[in-house]
Each structure stands twice: as structure tokens, then as C-alpha cells.
Specification:
single chain; mainly alpha; 3 helices; 82% helix
């Protein structure tokens, strides 16, 4: 079928997969944080602290997505999944 339009270096590919693993880890932590927030009560001091941690995790996930876009990893991965 010919080459792919978007080629990445091995380092960029490893970096992209590392970002995916980090996002997966953050997603699992977000699930735990959600349960802890509900158990603590959203308006309690602990619940508010957990909310701040949750917001930080979400920002980290957004940063990962932006970095994957910047290096072209998302497009590279999509090309391979559609091939």
C-alpha cells in the first residue's frame, strides 16, 4: 500500500506511546479520585482538595494530547489504525 504520509522517528514514537501510558495511568487515578470525592463529600475540605488534584490530572491529560498533536503522533497512529 505504499508509505505513510506522516513518518516519525523512533524517539517520537516511543515518546508518543509513553504519553499514552501516562494518560491511561491518569485516567485510572481519575476514577479513584472520583470515588474518593463522592465518599468524602464534594463540599468537604477533603473533597475540595481531591477536586484540585482531579483538575490537575485533567490538565496533565490535556498537555499530553497537545504534545501528541505537536509531534504528529496522533496523526501517525490514526494512519496506522486505518491501514
Amino acid at each position: 500500500m505504499g508509505g505513510f504520509a506522516n513518518e516519525l522517528s523512533q524517539q517520537e514514537i516511543k515518546h508518543g506511546y509513553s504519553l499514552l501510558r501516562l494518560m491511561d495511568h491518569l485516567d485510572r487515578e481519575l476514577d479513584v479520585l472520583h470515588q474518593q470525592r463522592l465518599a468524602a463529600g464534594l463540599s468537604s475540605l477533603e473533597g475540595q482538595q481531591l477536586t484540585r488534584v482531579r483538575q490537575s490530572h485533567l490538565r496533565k491529560q490535556q498537555d499530553c494530547i497537545q504534545e501528541m498533536d505537536r509531534i504528529g503522533f496522533n496523526a501517525w497512529l490514526m494512519e496506522r489504525q486505518l491501514a
